[in-house]
Queue: 2 jobs
Job 1
Amino acid sequence: MSFIFTDEQTMLLDAATRLVEENGGSAAVRAAGASDRGYDAAVWQQMVEMGWSAIVVPEAQGGLGLGQVELSIVAAAAGRALLPSPLLSTAIAARALVLAGTPAQQDRWLPQIAAGELTATVALTGVEGCYRPGDVAATLRTDGDGYRLDGSAGFVLDGHDAGLIIVAAKLDGEIRFVAVPRGEAGLSAERLPWLDITRAAARLGFDNVTVPADAVMAGGRFADVLAFANATLAAEQMGAAAAALDITVDYAKQRVQFGQPIGAFQAVKHALADLALLVEAATSAVWYAAACADQRPEEFAEAAATAKLMASDAIVKCSADMIHYHGGIGYTWEHDAHLYFRRGRTSASLFGDADAQTKIIADAIGLGAETNDAA
Amino acid sequence: MRLDFTPEQEAFRAEVRTWLDAQLSGEFAHIREIQGISEGAEQRFPWERHLGRAGWNQLSWPKAFGGREANLFEQVIFHEEYARSGAPGRLSHVGLELVAPTIMAFGNDEQRQRFLKPTAEVEIIWAQLFSEPNAGSDLANVQTRARLEDRPGGQVWVLEGQKIWSSFAQYSQWGMALVRTEPGSVGSKGLSMLLIPLDAKGVDIRPIRQMSGGSSFNEVFLDGAETAAANVLGAAGEGWKVAMGTLTFERGVSTLGQQMGFRNELDHILRVAKENGAARNPGIAKRLARAQAELRTMRYTALRMLGGSGLSLAGLTYKLYYTSWHQRLGELAMDVLGPAGEIAVPGSDAYRLQKMYLESRSDSIWAGTSQIQRNIIAERGLGLPREGKAAR
């Protein structure tokens, strides 16, 4: 048993931190988020060159075949600066292909993803943004040898830009993943005016989209894909929460009122200590979930839900207090506090909010039947 | 980052479990029935001596002091297995977890020879004599005085003052006392750490009845109590440094075992909630799930803290995190029981959970209140400045 990174993981963390520091910064992050793509393609290209698009792709498909710990390391680094990129969406889509795809589907798409030639995303829910199986709003129906896809999807990360969309769709009541390439006839995508302005999400429409039989994946992996999505998102949230706390602590050391730094006053320092608790809890839960993904699949669903719950608590509270303890300046558009605050809210809902995560945990401890009203 | 224990560590776990199971189904079977912090002392001490003679109390100690030099993970395993076995917490905790490490760190060879083995074997039970009526959170305000006087057999320290909140002092033969040895000194200067016999004249120990009904704390009145001049730990005048060393031992590996105790409590509440239908209330179910998530998180925080080197932010936050969690768990337990839980006879589910509910209120007070913890986290962990003189 060990709770420290390997030398390779430490090197990855150092490299990721450098890349994010060199490319982050308020102006760059805001400009990238506001651009048509929602990210800076040159920054993404750097990430690709560092191998980030290949982390979870198996070596057989040209990837690095690394684990969730490595993915969480780069997600956490990017999260610190809220650096926009298709890293999260593409990694989750790659996961979905690894978990549910046929060998032919994996051989077709994963090498392109690993090489950075193709970005991808997942469409897991309807336009309401809830993540119960019943919320999936895309449906498949048979048509000759293949299928047709109808309906819609909401909160699709980078959905207006991704080259490949892994869509969760209902077929005879069961959720199946379907690989839909960008540009397919009947597929429409509209970027959403999202609360989060450092990340793009789209609403997708499916109008009689042709789906060949070999684009449909095995069923039964919806909850697994969501768990990986949440474990990765939680790492990003944890990075963002830690940054929000660090920035606020620095300010509390600099800002002088009543003849001393405001961070000397117990009313302020105790509040910041409480934030440190949340960040430390998120950190523990995130690495535990990442290690479970790679080593203890039987514990992973609960661990991922726990990580998401803890990391959401941390980013939501740290970003709110980041505004507050900066005083008036924290409430201005120019200050970055609102960027973290926006990310806090949207990331807490994305892939399932606190209610959804507690439901997963309740199931794991045998309270499942009792909380059916939440389903 | 590895979650699994090695085959050698698993073999050690099997050894511990086999030994505990054998003892707890034989001679000491009755020990599992004992609940609460301070109940059943007359049965618990023989059990704790038994553990010491078998070497478990001094597992991590250097071989030179009779220990087994168990590494961190073996200690974790032992504490987990101990808690899982259902045996009660240790009345000898103060000696094993606080005094012995302090003697190892600051004592001289003679003191180590004299005290460590009997402490491990629970032949000496220790009390910690730090707090005073006017020195709680502000520990440096200690007023108990000690002065050197000549006696026919040599010099002795003579003590005058009052200590309070001393856990299990009513059972103790020795105390580790932070006292003022430089007349007129103020604050953390001029203090010394003395080891004093408690069965001598001039020592009056009075148990304090707590709000939970039990008595684990005591007042200790020192009125001309004496201890040999040699019984000073570290140099005279360096008591503050020694005390700060002791306080860092308060959050050691035994926290992992304590978490297994929390696990048992949460499992108990889950069982009751399923049986009495409270778990069907979605609000209760969510709080139970959250308690589960936070307990899991706590375990990995503890392992991160113990696995790392030096004083980490995780380590600094740990006490505040678990005590807040435990107090919320007490509240949750009472909500799970409902009004019926207010009526309890000894031995019932309600009685055990009521006791936990009451006892958990001490968590935010002892070993540095939650406010002191926040100061420590902010100042030592986050590097925030101390409050200015003008505001003090």
Job 2
Amino acid sequence: MDEIISLKHVNYSYFGKIPALSDINLSIKKGEMFCIIGQNGSGKSTLLHILNGLIFPDSGETLFNGTPVTEKSMRDTNFGSQFRQKIGYIFQNPDVQLFCPTVFDELLFAPLQLNLPLETARERAEQTLLFLDIGYLKERPVYLLSGGEKKKVAIASILTMNPEVLLVDEPLANLDPKTQTFFTGLLLELNRAGKTIIFTTHHLDLVDHLQPRVAVLSEEHTLRKTGTASGILNDEEFLISMNLIHEHVHKHGEEVHKHYHSHYVFHKH
Amino acid sequence: MENNLPAYLRQSEGGQQEGRHAKRGQLSFLNKSIVNAAVTMKSIYLQAENSGRQNFFQRIHPGVKLLSLIYFEIVISFVHRPIAQMLITSFIFLLFLAAGLSLFLVYRRILFLVFIFGFLIIWPASLNMITPGKIIFNLICFSKPSQFWIYHIPQCIGFTAEGLQVVWLLFLRVLNSVSFAMLVVFTTSFPAFVKSFKIIGLPDTFLMIITLGYKYIFILSRTIEEAFFALKSRLIGNIRNNTIRKLMGGLIFNIFKKSMTNYENTWYAMVSRGYQGKIILHSPKQVDSTDLFAFIVIVAFGIGILFM
């Protein structure tokens, strides 16, 4: 597989004071399913922002298809538009991602900004509504949607760009179990269709489901380990040291006991 | 299992704080104003959003409704005869019936606004102090006329026929203007209404800003309400007013910071989806024969009223 995104010695800090990423080296292949895990505040979302060219590293280099992603290259209309079309970013909080008057406008927003003909944009929007089974929401204002509906619309608004790479920040955050299942299936389907999926999570069960290649960010904002899903998930000691599994207390009848737990992957008695 | 709970958590607070719960109404004025504001905003917006019935007036193109609104406001301001204004009132009433809206709900709001802006503020114009004329109902008589600052106070103060006519005309104008505006608001969803401004040439970027502002009001009202309830649920006993001011100040600051973060992320989301400084929105549905028919009827009615 060809390399589509790579990061070389990337450092980033907020206001030049609060470190967010420290010496990150990553290489992501075309069509790969890639996951970034780490505890809260480890820099997962910041890393996605950098991968999407929304913010730029203090030092180090981001390459997309071998071309450096910098403020200067993003100002180049050709590269900028192509980059935006090829990388879609689904934010963790759909409330910030949805800003158009209606659901249909949301779906048309990206294709129209990317200068696609209106007819093509409409066709894509209609097909996406149908695909995600949200046709009934077409004319609804976005702030009158439920949490699950907002998430579906957020996904739809990105899919109409037909991106090659999909960045997803915490895909299962604030979703009910049914929508979580839907979303997990969707990510698998999109990956099978050849899309590169890069997502962040601290749900190890999602990692187990999707079996991506995994990168683990530490509390110190460094990349501690990269490996296969099974390789990472089976290294219990490492996960404990990274605070990704925790001691869990619960009751069996009258007996209260504790064990290491991450939902159901590490439910050992 | 080992219990590491702090000792105080293993005890009940019952009895220790007696008497402190007696008064818990310190935030009542804020409670009423904030919660009512939030509820009113929500109900207004939700009602507007839910005006999606497929009756005649709802089906008309939002741009046509906007032009009709502008046209009607001009007609209303040019009509000087109360009888003509009353005909406009009847016409709007018929349009409300055609739209199938709850007349009680709609007119309750209209009459509230009209009472304030169309009566309370202008009723002094019916007195002979402001509109000279023949007094038809005397209110008070003094021994002699007098002068107060720039005002001449006549010997007798009362309602004049000319004054009542002026007030009646202004009342009808405000009533008609507010009614027609309400008719458009109640029969058009906000997104469609904002998009209709494209017809008068407003740029898409400006329309997007209106939409974002509108969404922000909606989210803000919900956030304020929730934050206020969270604050209220933790307030026990008598709180001094300056403490309340500090708490509210902190709350407002937090909401402001949260808004800033949200909008920074919204900006990122826009850039991520290809925004390069110019927003392109798709246009609303095309104007069809029904829209043209409705517009012709409204224009013809307006011309008829102007020349009657």
